[in-house]
Amino acid sequence: MNQSAFHKLSYGVYVVSTWDEGRPAGCIANSAMQITSKPASIAVSINHDNYTNKCIEQSGRFAISILAEDSDPAIIGTFGFQSGKDVDKFAQVKYTVEDHMPVITDSCGYIVCRVIDKMETATHTVFLGEVEGAEVFGNRNAMTYAYYHQVVKGKSPKNAPTYIPEEEEKKENGPVKKFQCQVCGYVYEGEELPADYTCPICGMGTDQFTEI
Asked: Are 132 and 112 in contact (CB under 8 A)?
């Protein structure tokens, strides 16, 4: 089975956020969709291993910040490759409280929902939320998963629905080179390291990467 076919489906890149006993918490998600229009409802898929899953369950609400093509790539590193159990992600990223929920400032806009139902799978919880508020920030293009994968050259976090294990990706795409960030240890894989690439974890440029 060629799992790359899944990448042909339409995905976005979002920060799904909520409250953790008064502290903002969140994670990267690429599976969010509108289910109904009246009343408006949205579904998001969150891995059981994501700390945000537990926080949404407890708070009963979540917000979706829709990242833009020109959003700082470090946002994806902060929310996609670290755990809220160990790191205060919002201490590193600008945010505001809108409709009583934390949302990312550097985004296209946000949607705030109240959880009205959920469905459990073997690895993920699909939360269904009724929309309580939404707003657009400026006139920016929303980042798609395809853009993130092809232009930003980013990798899916292991808890993402679109994650493909390294050994399977090699079978499908052939051998690739590895370049490691000497500041934080993040490893980029691809044919070559793009000249304008920045580390999604710490924001360092190509001068801080070495081939391994």
From this structure: yes
Both structure tokens of 181: 């960030």
Q: Where in the chain is the domain with CATH 2.30.110.10?
A: 3-136
CA 44/CA 124 separation, integer angstroms: 10
Is CATH 1.10.8.60 what the domain over 175-211 is classified as, yes or no? no
Q: Which residues of 165-202 are buried (b: 16+ CB within 10 A; e: fewer)?
A: eeeebeeeeeeeeebbbeeeebebbeeebeeebbbbbe
Q: What is the pLDDT of residues 162-205, one digit of tens each?
A: 444 555 545 455 557 888 887 677 788 888 888 888 887 677 78
* Helices of type H across the chain: 51-59, 74-80, 145-147, 166-173
Peptide bond before residue 39 is cis, with ω within 30 degrees of 0: yes
Q: Which fold has domain 3-136?
A: Pnp Oxidase; Chain A (2.30.110)
Q: How many CB atoms lie within 10 A of CB 109?
A: 18
pTM: 0.74
Q: What percent of the chain has pLDDT over 90?
A: 50
Percent above pLDDT 70 for the chain: 83
